[in-house]
Write a structure and sequence with these properties.
Blueprint (H helix, E strand, L loop, with lengths): L5 H19 L8 H5 L3 E6 L4 H17 L7 E6 L6 H17 L6 E6 L24 E6 H9 L7 H12 L1 H12 L3
Parallel strand pairs: 1-2
Antiparallel strand pairs: 2-4, 3-4
Helix pairs in contact: 1-7, 3-4
Length: 189
Amino acid sequence: MSDPSAKTQLVIQQSKAWLEQVVLAYELCPFARKPYDLEQIRLIATPSRSLSELLQLVAEECQLLVTTPSDEIETSLIILESALVDFRDYWSFVGEVENQIYTTGLEGILQVASFHPNYLFGGSTAKDPANFTNRSPFPMLHLLREDSLSAALAHHKAPEQIPERNIALMREKGIQHWQQLLSSIKQTT
């Protein structure tokens, strides 16, 4: 991907805008600011629709993370430009990624967090603003280092309260706010 297409560049730009205007601006992840400011978050986008190619890309990113010092790359966001637009298909693929992490011996070293434009928590409805804690402009896989996450959680006053705080914020702002924000990000050119 040394010469990404114009579409790929736009997808990365819009995803970075989401990271800045949602995740960082609303402090949804209190641990994201430092690696963002230090430019240690790797954002890559792929136009691939092939599940086998996507799994291969995930494997390559996992290998990159475990062989690169965290002060160079702390975490990776794999952005799927046009694949897995159906949330159920995406969620099934997340399971395959988790299985791949397990079968390659990386469980306890890496984990995956999931984001999707139509993210839906189990037991919630599509109209629950809480779903926006994991809604993004494109389907994404966030590969995290377990040791970095553990260290960040150990230094946070009340890490168990992060999800509740985020859900309360989503509901306080309301679904229209989040829909408009994501829509404006998708119009970034």
